[in-house]
Amino acid sequence: MAPTDRDAAAPGALPTLTHVTVPASPATAGPTLPLRPELAGLEPYGAPQLDVPVLLNVNENPYAPSEAVVADVAAAVAQATRGLNRYPDRDFEALRADLAAYLLAESGVALGVEQLWAANGSNEVMLHLLQAFGGPGRTALSFAPTYSMYPEYARDTSTAWVAGRREDDFSLDVDVACAAIAEHRPSVVLLASPNNPTGTALPAATVRAVLDAAAAVPGGCVVVVDEAYGEFRRRGTPSALELLADHPHLAVSRTMSKAFGLAGARVGYLAASRALVDTLRVVRLPYHLSAVTQAVARAALAHSAELMAQVGSLRDERDALVRWLRERGLQVADSDANFVLFGLFEDRHAVWQGLLDRGVLIREVGPPGWLRVSVGTPQETRAFQDALVEVAGL
Ligand SMILES: *Cc1c(COP(=O)(O)O)cnc(C)c1O
């Protein structure tokens, strides 16, 4: 290794770092990157982002923010920008108060500011949960088919991952769930309700039984109910928010990405006991939620009544789409979300590709034979239906 200038200037002062080898030319192989073995050869997660006219693949709200929302968000961002020389409010108390007010209006559950938490998408919220309650020697448990990011949170926090099974109709058998908890003694259980990719929601009795089983795990177990699609639940489907008062080991995760139509803003949040939220404050990076993000979220939340009206029409569209698919003889999972899982196709990839060829992008996900389509505008849904009739010969 060639001596550096510093070696020459101070002979003998510092040993040369012989384990660092700088390649002689770009063509020469560099030093080995000490990648964790469990990450070797892995691809980053993500649905294909293709430029086609009808995008029904990632469960976004098809309606862009109204001009009134745009104007208020822009003004709030301008105001936040005037203070960007300073770090933002680390504990984002004003945003947490707004989120508590929103959940009271949406679910009728009253929560204190200290029971709310937020981060850059609910994916980051759930990573915080795994950072606090997972880790080496610990286990996270969920029930497949479910959200494909859950095993990644576990992997990234060196938490062991166990996937139990849902029934053929995608419901969760209480005895199976409780037996899995007793057997694996997880420190975290992740339940998506409504579930992705199936759209199915869990009855309150199932969530209660899981909470009881979790409470019996030696060393403790946190139950995370991921309600990313909570606002789309059908009348009579409960929210796990109603169980928070009696269950300090429950965390209910929500997001502004789906019903709220703000996927690009990256704001997720959760509600839990104060004790649980306090642990998340330990693992978060300081100032993780930028002043701009906080301003955008608060300005949008001020329009929540208007946005919730839109959710009502998406629910109606969803129910009509479920009926339409069933009338054509297809199997459709009950949906409390803004998407529908349908099948069964012998060659689902051919159907997916045929739709794409007609400008409609949906998602090839879930058990073999099934496809998932997001609820779009009435025009987008029509384009999907027309394309499906052609491709599948319905
Ligand atoms: C879309 C989705 C989320 C939301 O992720 P964000 O990071 O908030 O955009 C969370 N959970 C499930 C099951 C989802 O499908």
Quick structural gist:
The protein is α/β, with parallel strands linked by helices and 394 residues long. It folds into 2 domains: 54-65 and 305-392, Aspartate Aminotransferase, domain 1, CATH 3.90.1150; 67-302, 3-Layer(aba) Sandwich (Aspartate Aminotransferase, domain 2).
Could you walk me through the main structural features you see in this protein, from its secondary elements to its overall organization?
Its cofactor is pyridoxal 5'-phosphate. It is an enzyme of class 2 (transferase). Pathway: Amino-acid biosynthesis; L-histidine biosynthesis; L-histidine from 5-phospho-alpha-D-ribose 1-diphosphate: step 7/9. With 394 residues, this protein is an alpha/beta fold. It folds into two domains: 54-65 and 305-392, Aspartate Aminotransferase, domain 1 (Alpha-Beta Complex); 67-302, Type I PLP-dependent aspartate aminotransferase-like (Major domain) (Aspartate Aminotransferase, domain 2, 3-Layer(aba) Sandwich), CATH 3.40.640. The protein is 37% helix and 13% strand. It contains twelve helices and twelve strands. A seven-stranded mixed beta sheet has the order 2-8-7-6-5-3-4, sandwiched between helices. The chain is globular. Pyridoxal-5'-phosphate binds next to α4.
